Amino acid sequence: MAIEVSGSSTPLSASGTLTSPSPIPKAIFDLKQFAQKPLLAASDLVELISSRSTTSSAVFVYDLAEQVGFGPLTKSWSNDGETASIISLQTRAGTGLTLVGRLSQGTSKETENGSILTAYTTSTGLASMIPSLLYLPSPTPTSRLILQVPAVTPVGERFALSPTLAPLNPTISLLPDDFTVLLSATPQESVDLAAVAYKLPTHVIHLFDHHSATREVGKLEVPALPDKARVGAGVQEVLKEAGYSYFDYAGDEQAKTVLVVLNGALALTVKAIARHTPGLGVVVVRVLHPWDETAFKAALPSTVKIVHILDEVTTTGVQGILQVNVFSTLLDPSSPGPAIYTQPISPLCVHEYLTKPSSFFQFLSSLLPAPLEPLSLDPKKSSKLLFFSTPGTALSSVPTIIGQTFSTSSSLSSRLLTEHDILSKAGGITADRVLLAPKDSTDEFIPLPVVLPISHVSEGVSNFLAILDQSLLKSHSVLTHAKPGSPVLVVTSWSPAELVANLHADVISLIKERGLRLCAINAKDIATKLLGAEGPSHHIIQALASEIAVLRIAEGVYGGIVQEMDLAKVNAHVWVGLVEIDVSVTTPQADEPQELALKDFEFNAIAVSTEDGETIVNGARLGSWHDAAKHLLFPNAYTPPNDSAADNGEYPQIPNLRPEIPDRTYLVTCSVNRRLTPTDYDRNVFHLELDTSGTGLKYEIGEALGVHGWNDEGEVLDFCAWYGVDPSRLITIPVPGGDGKMHTRTVFQALQQQIDLFGKPPKSFYSDLAEYAKAKTDKFALQFIGSSEGVSTFKKLSEKDTVTFADVLKRYASARPGIEVLCEMVGDIKPRHYSIASAQSVVGDRVDLLIVTVDWVTPSGSPRYGQCTRYLVNLKVGQKVTVSIKPSVMKLPPDNMQPLIMAGLGTGAAPFRAFLQHRAMLAQQNIPVGPIYYYFGSRHQSQEYLYGEEIEAFIQDAVVTKAGLAFSRDGPKKVYIQHKMLEDAEVLARMLRVENGVFYLCGPTWPVPDVYEALVNALVKHHGVDAAVAGDFLEGLKEEERYVLEVY
Question: In what residue span(s) does the FAD-binding FR-type domain sit (predicted)?
């Protein structure tokens, strides 16, 4: 009994409620929920059928299959309790012998109880595996091998992907008769035959079109899962029960010319042509081996005079298995038969015929007595939408959302196909085809690459074209795919004038020639107006704004079927932001420099499927040492271009310096690490000096130094041991802020240097982790903490218990995602910024820091340490540190004569040391400088008078005009800096109100109100203004950058 597939779930509900989709795949697989998705990819269902423990004893996933996106989904289900055991293998010499050994008598414990093995590989992998498969034992109802083979192969100099079966021809004829080779073409047929494979009494090879058909996302019927204990009587009977046969015939029943073709993308195209061409028929081969001569003869019409064999071979002149089978069946010396001709089709020809259907029409016309009449293969009343974007960006999900939106329509069906080009542009390009057609359409299934081809000779067939990344306009010829007179939407941050200026001359000519309607929208600006700061919700609104623009612009294509969406607020912003661009008056200038030729899109990469149905080009994963070897052997391929403007100087950015963030980073050396407070004092304040010579690091007075600290080595190793992960194992994870870029590191490196494992988890982490909990108590507890009802529990854990990510994992031990998933869930260590305590004009190639260690004890008695201060306090002389520079509000005024009032508490003295060093240097050069009033506060003078000797020297040299030192615990009464400021109230008021002085406060936030009140009182008392006027005056100083606070 088939599982009902419901279309009730919609990405955007009628009320317009938006929920941010979690980027973390779910750990516990739910078959019913999976089957009820309104849109599914056939390849996902093939993996589902093949990987169930009721279907297979074990699943062997070969690397070549994973590289084309077939297998990762199965591996993501490995811990759900319903999936067969998963074994990852690599394709090499002798590939297949592992399978032979597992099925051979006496070599495996599983053989005694029966073993139904499944293997995933590609056509190329299968070709190298077949010689080993000759040694397989004969199949039995309890011991069989099923190979699920996605047919997709790179061809040509540009590594374009093709569904050709040519790689199999040299070896497939070697297979014994106890193998059945099934070929499927449509998405539904691929799913059905995947299930049929487990009901056959033979070994089975199932080849399906993974170039397009099985990767299409559309509506499918999920068949009942096969039971490995139940096997059919024979191949023909099982196929008939499923509604299929060895061969299909289509076309004229009285045809004189018949084409014989292997089931696949070309076969579907030929069938559609034959149904509309008198005198032409086609026999489609569904079961290639063993060959059934009787069934083949029965499929041919009695009127046939000429048979053309469309034989997929590696090169012309090579004899394919289809040619051998057809000739052996029809050539009979005792009786005359039809004339037989072989038409070899190379892999490049298959690729050309699918990307340029007109060339396939010409090829078929050459085989017929009369040329083919012009024929459209488009489904009736269909519309074709085409999207170009960049993988992993905020807008890359828009085509999927569009497809899902149309899937909820009662009158329309949608088909979505995603392709990637990772060679013509750094980071890759994504092309998404969406085909809309009436749900009651009876048209035959035609591959989307044929209906909506993308090639360098495209004549433009898309009814609507959207460009979701403005940079593609400057690099690729994407508008060539737009149908004359059709709308084109560009999502861009450029103004209309900037957009036109960035269009290639050829693109402008094309727009004019085809009469394209060019529209633009700034989705990022709309999201900012609605939400303000960037974040996950910001990306959602960008995608939503783009989607609404698509729906509205292309509304004439399919009618207003989404009018029920209540998204008025976003809708209004979209309409205001949507502009039509007029290029009719644009003419190229004669003196313009020669533009580079635009590149063409070439399908050469398939994304990896995740458990929640999303497809991405890159994703975190565990790997072997081979990943690192590839980076070393092919550095140019794995090193992204460095666009940093800072690299043009004498000191270029170190390319392999971690982390790879947009800011310029430097590798400096610890030269001094000295504790300033006594060792028996409870606060460890220490002074660091970092040598910057040879790095090119420059900083201004008052700027901050970003330190990229590491987690404690011992804690990381302890966690790895507890979590059961090998710290030396390689892992590929996203680069911090790398916009989809990935890098490969060891697990230890990732956890020590990048992943914030010992940081504070946000509320969403508990919800995401709940999906991986196997114990119900853990699952419910995590769900509760992550919900709105659990806010008080979350607050206690976060603020009182100060739990870390690692603590949460240990507390709920049954929730244990894979380490590669955990890394993405936790996120990256953020740099900690410290005010620089030195002036480079004085100290030269050096940067000084003043830091206090952060440590505390939780209510349970566990010690806690600040991540970065712990890293810095343990630095050894000579040890390297990665740093970056961050601008600060703490700047010296432009006039050296302006008075300075500096108030610092504890380590807040750091930037003032730099100020004093610089003013002292000016004084030594006999440059006049203004007065400085320095206020410093700490608990004890004998223990925390930070840089006390230097301050006293500055006082003696008159660099510091007056010092107000407040040591709160030294006297009978507590004295703070605001008390010292009140003693100088008249001078401070004059400095600020009359002498254009500047006030600075650096340190903790708590004294801010008291200091503010002290200054207000000084102005009221000595300048005769009321408190409100004094307060307004201080607020005005903030605008002039003369009342500067840097508090934390």
Answer: 663-894
